[in-house]
Amino acid sequence: MTTHYSWYNIRTILILTLGSLTYGYANSVLTYTLGQPGFLAYFNLAENSAYSNAIIGTINGIFSAGGVCGAFAAGWMCDQYGRQTTMKTASVFSILAGILLAGSVNAVMLIVARFISGWGAGMMVVIIPIFGSEVSPPSSRGLLVGQHGVWIVAANAATGWIAVGTYYSTNLSFQWRFPFALQCTCPLLLLCCSPWVPESPRWLLMQGRDAESWEIVSRLHVDGPGASHVPKSSYAQKEFHQMMKQVELDTQAWVTGGGAWQMVTKHSYRKRMWMGFFVQYAAQATGSMVVYNYMVSLYKDLGFTGGITIMLSATYVTVATVANFVAAIIMDHVGRVRLLTIGLAGCMISLSLESAMEARLVGPASHTGNALGVLFIFCFICFYACGIDATSYVYCSEIFPSHIRAPGMAFSMAGTFLSTVVFLEVGPTALARIGWGYYVVFVCLTAVNLAVMLYFFPETKGLTLEEINSKFGDAVAVHFQENVVDPDNASGDQKADVES
């Protein structure tokens, strides 16, 4: 398969992964903090107390509530002020949250800081995959946008190993304040590196800034290996011409069709909206965030104690990082929907076996049962990371047309945050009262979700963002392979010749 990305394209994606690291760190830091004796003692979170369960559920749930607000804020800002401005705003929220978390003096301040952290994370998890998809060529979009999932989990792994180190600190305050303070690092770096990130060429086209858009596309995408020195390759010309014509067509349809109400009234847009939401909901309905956020408690239930619980958790996300990278590599060959369905099926089976182990064999004296319990947890994350994690972000970022990609992605990510609000808020109480029975709920939900995905979801691999319209019954202005462009007109002449 020919690659059409340049080093400029790669540099852009790598800088964007700082946003992925920001989200991943913010999303995971509390998981390991709950295993730090200094944190539990400072906030008086005695094990298995009603107060402890309520506070832990709230600080997890409020992060997701902030995430919903941040996601919709990003959806609005992306179209109003551009992708770059939205990314910078998300960075500021994330830096502020890290400062407040590290300086928390009581549970109220911690809860407020977690809400702000969720807001920044919600903005970041919307803008980064949108940005990535709009600057990536179709043949490598899975690999490049898939880096979002890879680096989210890499941040999770880094958070885990940082927590392993701070666990053994004799300074109980340092155990949890230092990891919270480190949350500021990646968004600060992203803010500093943002001048080297170009604005989305598709957003520029929607603003009528054709010349700026063409200049960026001609630097991002090339004919193939060895062609990166060609400033205006035929591949970039054809791609830009297709983008320009599709924006014209979509803008006209958007105005004549009634504007934003079409996301509700137009069948093809409604279909995309519920599919994006469903993909993210289905990912959470596997039980992934419950397993992850309460992993330390889960290992304690399996009979493990002390620092070994945090080490196992860190190893878990390290394995997930590798599996996500494998997913990014194979996604453009295997396909998005196939990976998603394999991942759902594998998670369902793994969690079923984990529930059976907890029900029958686990306990302090059952070494075999405990070992099998850990094995099935690791099987679960291999299927989730290799099949669902990175793939879900890629799929949601590409199924929407340019003029509703931002609100569409925001609505999709609301599926993540709203699901986790419910699943995580009741998690401590449910695990305390019904234990492994809570995992059976996720097994049943995943069985239904798998059937829905197999029946309804179209494949998108290898198609340009504009050509994906055809999968939902919408018009494609110019099909890429049929796109014949006069090189002298490629950068913006509205009368450029097209044969289709």
Mean pLDDT: 86
Order of helices and strands: HHHHHHHHHHHHHHHHHHHHHH
What portion of residues is helical?
A: over 70%
Distance between the termini: 24 Å
Largest sheet: none
Sheet/helix structural class: mainly alpha
Number of DSSP-assigned strands: 0
Q: Unreliable segments (pLDDT under 50, ≥5 consecutive)?
A: 226-233, 492-500
Number of contiguous helices = 22
The general outline is: globular
Residue share in β-strands: under 5%
The value of Rg in angstroms is: 23 Å
Account of the protein in words:
The protein has 500 residues and is mainly alpha-helical. It has 22 helices and no strands. Helix 1 packs parallel to helix 7, helix 7 runs antiparallel to helix 8 and helix 16 packs across helix 17.
Characterize this entry briefly.
With 500 residues, this protein is mainly alpha-helical.
Offer a few descriptive terms.
single chain, 74% helix, globular
Q: What's the layout of helices and strands?
A:
Elements: H1 7-33, H2 37-42, H3 50-81, H4 83-102, H5 107-134, H6 141-145, H7 147-167, H8 172-181, H9 185-193, H10 201-206, H11 210-220, H12 234-257, H13 262-265, H14 267-285, H15 288-293, H16 295-301, H17 307-334, H18 336-360, H19 367-398, H20 402-425, H21 427-433, H22 437-456
Helix pairs in contact: 1-5, 1-7, 1-9, 3-4, 3-5, 3-20, 4-5, 4-8, 4-9, 5-20, 7-8, 7-17, 7-19, 11-12, 14-19, 14-20, 14-22, 16-17, 17-19, 18-19, 18-22
